[in-house]
Design goal:
With about 170 residues, the protein is mainly β. The protein is built from no helices and 20 strands. The chain has strands at about 5-10, 10-15, 25-30, 40, 45-50, 55-60, 70, 75, 85-90, 95, 100, 105-110, 115-120, 120-125, 130-135, 140, 145, 145-150, 155, 165-170. It has a six-stranded parallel β-sheet, with no helix packed on it. It has a six-stranded parallel β-sheet with strand order 2-5-8-11-14-19, with no helix packed on it. A six-stranded parallel β-sheet has the order 3-6-9-12-15-20, with no helix packed on it. The radius of gyration is 15 Å and the shape is globular.
Length: about 170
């Protein structure tokens, strides 16, 4: 990407029923030393039907710290058929707060990342769905001193094969 500061607020993303469509994909492949990087998404609405691509995806292969702020967004899969609401890879210093995620196969997926996850509502009726999946990642769901940086998430899945959270090698 040659756009190092992404600020996206109050936008609406809608897909039809034609498969492989995503909402926003940020790929950081090279970041010059003098560049400051920010990825900020607030108050957006993602309404997907039958999508195999994430609604919001941020990936860094630039060996740099990418601060990420995801606040007050709504992610809805219309027919319980969309794959991922959010997917992040190599993101450090992330803040994922006060989002609503409904009926995705995967709510939030972190791959080799670190994020504070606070006040989100994640629910799914999809068979074998997962609310939060962390692989080789750090998920903060607790206090830091007297400040809540993570926690107070409401995660529910209605299928007995669907875990609210999975953590692997994290």
């Amino acid at each position: 990407s040659d756009c190092y500061n992404v600020i996206l607020t109050h936008s609406y993303f809608l897909t039809g029923t034609e498969g492989n469509k995503g909402g926003v994909s940020c790929n950081y492949t090279e970041i010059p030393d003098e560049e400051e990087v920010t990825s900020y998404f607030q108050g957006n609405t993602f309404r997907f039907t039958n999508s195999t691509s994430p609604a919001l995806k941020v990936i860094s292969t630039a060996a740099a710290t990418i601060p990420l702020f995801i606040d007050y967004n709504s992610f809805t899969s219309e027919e319980s058929s969309s794959f991922q609401a959010m997917m992040f890879s190599n993101i450090y210093g992330g803040s994922i707060t006060n989002n609503t995620i409904t009926n995705y196969q995967s709510g939030i997926q972190l791959l080799s990342s670190s994020a504070d996850i606070y006040g989100n509502t994640i629910s799914s009726d999809v068979e074998n769905s997962t609310g939060i999946s962390a692989i080789m990642s750090t998920v903060n769901e607790t206090m830091n001193g007297s400040y809540f940086l993570g926690g107070y998430n409401n995660i529910s899945t209605s299928n007995s094969l669907s875990p609210c959270m999975t953590v692997r090698i994290s």
